[in-house]
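Table S2 (text version). Query chain:
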Amino acid sequence: MHVLNVSSSESFTLSSGRVISIPKAEMVFEPWQGELLSDTYGNKQVLDYERRPMFAELVVLSMLKNDGWDGVWVDSYRKQFREGMPRSAEGTRELPEGAAKFFSAVTAVTGFKGCWDVFAWKGAGEFLFAECKRKAKDEVRDTQLVWLETCLNHGLSEKNFLLVEWDVNTH
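Corresponding structure-token output:
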């Protein structure tokens, strides 16, 4: 994940009492200056990534794909797996068999609630969940800690998770 500049970690206490340290990347993105979008999911910040308008989740997904991962933005708002912005050519997609099997095992316990923003994979069994949080505006919710703990109970480790704290360049 060197493309995401993991520079620190953040500790969380799970309901079991276990304290876990999740790798953390800190990023600053450029705001989108182009044509206004009609669908911004309740006024989400639109970012400029490679001269294309994207939400932070899709920027992180794109960066992971550039680093050899495949994956999706888990659009929990509309309960879909996305590769691109709403109403874009990339649209939605289905998960491949191995990723779908793991995702289903976790959602059997948690439902869709608390799922991390980006679900990425390499091959059949190497998974990564990334959560995008805007600096000083968002924080990890209790439901996301339940999702994390459920994934750990299904064989993942803290190395399968990434917290991406991002902000917008104001200069």
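Notes on Table S2: The first helix runs from residue 56 to 66. The two ends are 27 Å apart (CA to CA).
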